[in-house]
DNA sequence: CTTGACATACTCACTAGTTCGTACATTTTA
DNA sequence: TAAAATGTACGAACTAGTGAGTATGTCAAG
């Protein structure tokens, strides 16, 4: 496999590509697709602009690769949650907490998704890798809701996608709209105390909604 | 005032500026600040590129004017809601419904805010007009919450800004993330039935949260 | 084990086209 | 006539993308 090489400093295609993707992720997340500069990316890499075109073909190709990589990352994360043993309410709280922490910990991902929405998800549509994303969260939520209803803990039958949206919207918004919201209401959304309060609030809101 | 002029076809600075702003709003909302083209805007106006620079100085100046105008619009909207006569729960439902409908009806505004967040709200910060926005919604919510608690309808004392965020996040997300969410979950968020269900859901969620 | 052929990885310099912004000339209004 | 408003044409700088050649590593044959 020739995984890594300690001393030989040259010809390490895998590392070169990773390096480009790392830098490009930051550039696009910071400036958007149109605002991101290929030259700026090239300068920050260990390699040259020519290599970007060698590996990714075009600026859009690079952007797409960045996007796919970002989605692949969260997919992994979502998949290894084991919630079926927990009681419904607690399972939901864990799931919400995970979503909350994930968005909080990955502002770059949140920003890339925002940017992709500005482009009407055009690149996502073109990518099989992303479109065929196994949306396991929905099944997880569906199972929790079903258990909750049969067990009499939840009073309401809700659409799992709607519930996912309710949770996602809040967690995502906190990060995506951090700057405008923070400016208008003079509030720092990344303060630990605020974060904890918000995490509790969205969990309580979802659960009391299901119990009502 | 010289509001409008039926026949005289020339030199109508107010109308020229409005025209430029209309076109620019669409361009920036569609392509972002970096992606928006001054030449493209100029072509779609009744006037020329020269006039854009004459009135707005620079591309950024134009963008800022667009942003300020968009915020001024909603401010007006928020201010003439009369909710103090309604019982707390109903008042909240009307407020939520209004927020929901506003975001739904103004995707351009939602997109501009998204774009501004990508730029870390940098332009907003530079604009006194926006920064000093009278955030009357918060007072409105605070009043409703207070009435609800004293009246015994609401069991919980909540921060009005947090409640505003809970509402805003959901309504905003539905519009801002329409494309990525719609693509992943194969769901059209602008369908009337879906819209009505979501509107009911966020209202129920907020109210049951406050009652719990 | 050494030579040489070949594919992959990489470098440097360059270009064609775009994009913001402006100099200059002209018309309209007061 | 002065000031404000407008149109045309142009340029300087930037930006995505490429042409052409070089280095590196692998592997087969001698």
Give a brief outline of the structure.
Chain A is an all-alpha fold and 212 residues long. Helices cover 75% and strands 0% of the residues of chain A. Chain A is elongated.
Overall description:
2 copies of one chain form a homodimer. The first copy, chain A, has 212 residues and is mostly helical. Chain A folds into 2 domains: 46 residues, Homeodomain-like (Arc Repressor Mutant, subunit A); 144 residues, Tetracycline Repressor, domain 2. Chain A contains 12 helices and no strands. Chain A is elongated. The termini of chain A are far apart. The first copy, chain A, binds a DNA duplex (30 and 30 nucleotides) through helix 3.
